[in-house]
Amino acid sequence: MDKRISAAEAVAQISDGMTVGIGGWGPRRKPMALVREILRSDLKDLTIVAYGGADVGMLCASGKVKKVIFAFVSLDFIPLEPYFRQARQSGAIEVMEVDEGMMLLGLRAAAWGVPFIPTQVGLGTDILTHNPDLKVIDSPYDDKEWVAMPALKLDVALIHADRADARGVCQIEGPDHYLDDWIARAADKTIVSCEELVESSYFQDPARARQVFWERSITDAVVEIPGGAHPTSCNPQYGFDVPHFKAYNASAKEGGFAAYSEQFLGANEAEYQERVGGLDAIRAIPLPVY
Questions:
Q1: Which CATH architecture has domain 7-98+153-273?
Q2: Looking at residues 36-45, what average pLDDT do you find?
């Protein structure tokens, strides 16, 4: 069983109008090389589900997005992702903004094959005001009301991992795998980019096996792209690129996304990485200290 494909082949499996879940968290371990491949494509009208960062902002800025379902879209040290902010303030996209925990419940519902999961989160808040499609239901067991968080079913999940084998076993070595396992389980198809492709024997070490968070049967495709999370981090491989993010943020005020793309995007991932200093430079980016 060999699930290895190229980034172009991976993106070719996405169609206009699909719902795409993107793993990672803000500026951390985003499948940015796959996002860049979408930027180079003709895809449009996508619904993006993400704990978002520059992945969401770039896709909005390039006109690929119809709707964003999110709990936040932030670069952390730059609190508001600049291009997502522009898209939302201009009304260029539809949005569904929910609590972080509600989004997790939506992914779990999709993974479990149920239409919704009841929760008290959101009761008495403007989440219900701004999301009129969210239903409040009566409990069949007592007199309490619950928010029925609907399943967030994904057509495709895009995730970046540290290592994977050709069969689709994926390792996330960093201290937090975020909600990537639920994003993978909620999707009809899961595509994983990785820093390194390894032999299956690599996972015979119990410590490494404990860093595998979903079954290989859930992974449909593996794309080896060292440095593929840049400019986001891939702990412990490398940190997020603060100077690059500052330049990206500044471009929203002067030059626009077209100028940013012209400077950095390139015709393929190799050209992108050359323009940002090369793989060695990416791997030399220090991890953030909090």
A1: 3-Layer(aba) Sandwich (3.40)
A2: 98
